[in-house]
């Protein structure tokens, strides 16, 4: 009996020692983890002055780009693009400087690279990154001067209001700040309201204002269901009064972007709708940068600048008036291929634009 009591006490003592040792090990492990975590955390140099500052979260896509782009200036520098490695370049060392708020037309033969410029701007295809670009970026980041050997090097980049669209942001931030009107606009299957404002960010009165601006207010108002009218995916159930391109223009107005891209938006519409689209573009996007890939030269005859593309290169760039009156220019040759009368009409449009600028520079 005494032996049993002795063994029981020994067993309890051993269990107690193991428990104390285990607790000590846990404390040491916890202490080590705490030190490791605190060492990995960056030291706070400036303590927040208020609780509001302390709880403030930094969201680069919101904080850094809240008011971006504010002007809509675009710069292509030494931009090269291939659709796949090993294929010929579709853009070959392209340099274009577009002033914020200007209206730019891009023209050229089929396959010249016109639409690829817009695809690259949206990063639907990526521009090539020269191996020296990373070295140059490190030099700029470290505020160092480039060596004499790198002075001959021309960096490749696309900037919007000074920000590199490949280096400084993701595609979501980029594309959410650009409105597009594609060559073959495809609508969502659903209501007209949903097609105008997919994210439901605007009030109903804003939708009606946008429809008024593109000349569709009366037509939509006459529909039995109005904004809740059903729209087929390809817009097959829409009448002439509700053109898909005009819906996209309404969406662009509601999006309130500083940059509007139009890829031959008037190529497949009748003259009346074409005229309406051009009128909306001139009147409603005065403060926006509008880049139009044009099928009809009359579409861009009153632009601020025309870019002529050929085999992936910029072969000509300037004011429409200057290029249309310049003997032997690419733009003049394109106009003459339609006919002498067509060239004269385009020249007249470009002259009227110049006179309008002189008379009232704010009425464009």
By DSSP (H or I, 4+ residues per run), the number of helices equals: 14
Shape: globular
Structure class = alpha/beta
What Rg, in angstroms, do the CA atoms define?
31 Å
Widest beta sheet: strand line-up: 6-9-10-3-11-12
> What portion of residues is helical?
40-55%
Low-pLDDT stretches: 51-62, 146-150, 358-364
CATH architectural arrangement of the largest domain: 3-Layer(aba) Sandwich
Structural domains: how many: 2
Number of separate strands: 12
CATH superfamily of the largest domain: P-loop containing nucleotide triphosphate hydrolases
Describe the overall structure.
The protein is α/β, with parallel strands linked by helices and 364 residues long. The chain has helices spanning 2-40, 51-54, 60-63, 114-121, 131-141, 171-175, 192-196, 204-213, 217-222, 244-255, 271-284, 320-324, 330-336, 340-359; strands at 74-81, 91-98, 103-108, 157-160, 163-164, 178-181, 190-191, 230-231, 259-263, 289-293, 305-310, 313-318. It is built from 14 helices and twelve strands. The strands form three sheets. The chain has a six-stranded mixed β-sheet, sandwiched between helices. The longest helix is centred in the first third of the chain and has 39 residues, at 2-40. It is globular and about 115 Å long. Residues 51-62, 146-150 and 358-364 have low confidence and may be disordered. Residues 34-57 have a biased composition (Basic residues). Residues 74-336 form the ABC transporter domain.
């Amino acid at each position: 009996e005494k032996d049993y009591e002795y063994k029981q006490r020994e067993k309890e003592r051993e269990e107690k020692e193991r428990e104390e040792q285990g607790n000590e090990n846990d404390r040491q492990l916890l202490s080590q983890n705490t030190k490791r975590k605190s060492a990995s955390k960056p030291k706070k140099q400036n303590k927040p002055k208020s609780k509001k500052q302390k709880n403030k979260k930094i969201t680069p896509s919101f904080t850094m780009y809240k008011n971006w782009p504010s002007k809509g200036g675009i710069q292509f520098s030494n931009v090269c693009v291939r659709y796949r490695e090993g294929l010929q370049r579709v853009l070959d060392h392209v340099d274009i400087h577009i002033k914020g708020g200007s209206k730019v037309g891009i023209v050229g033969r089929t396959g010249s690279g016109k639409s690829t410029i817009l695809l690259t701007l949206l990063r639907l295809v990526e521009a090539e990154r020269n191996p020296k670009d990373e070295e140059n970026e490190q030099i700029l980041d470290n505020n160092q001067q480039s060596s004499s050997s790198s002075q001959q090097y021309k960096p490749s980049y696309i900037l919007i209001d000074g920000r590199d669209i490949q280096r400084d942001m993701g595609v979501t931030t980029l594309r959410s700040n650009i409105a597009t009107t594609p060559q073959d606009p495809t609508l969502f299957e659903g209501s007209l309201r949903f097609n105008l404002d997919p994210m439901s960010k605007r009030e109903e009165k804003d939708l009606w204002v946008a429809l008024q601006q593109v000349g569709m207010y009366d037509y939509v108002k006459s529909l039995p269901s109005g904004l809740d009218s059903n729209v087929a995916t390809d817009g097959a159930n829409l009448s002439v009064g509700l053109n898909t391109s005009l819906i996209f223009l309404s969406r662009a107005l509601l999006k309130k972007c500083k940059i509007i891209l139009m890829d031959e938006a008037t190529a497949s519409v009748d003259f009346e709708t074409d005229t309406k689209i051009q009128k909306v573009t001139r009147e409603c996007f005065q403060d926006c940068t509008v880049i139009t890939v044009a099928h009809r030269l009359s579409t861009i005859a009153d632009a601020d600048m025309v870019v002529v593309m050929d085999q992936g290169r910029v072969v000509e760039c300037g004011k429409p008036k200057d290029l249309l009156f310049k003997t032997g220019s690419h733009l003049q040759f394109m106009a003459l291929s339609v006919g002498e009368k067509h060239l004269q009409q385009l020249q007249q449009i470009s002259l009227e634009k110049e006179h309008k600028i002189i008379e009232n520079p704010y009425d464009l």
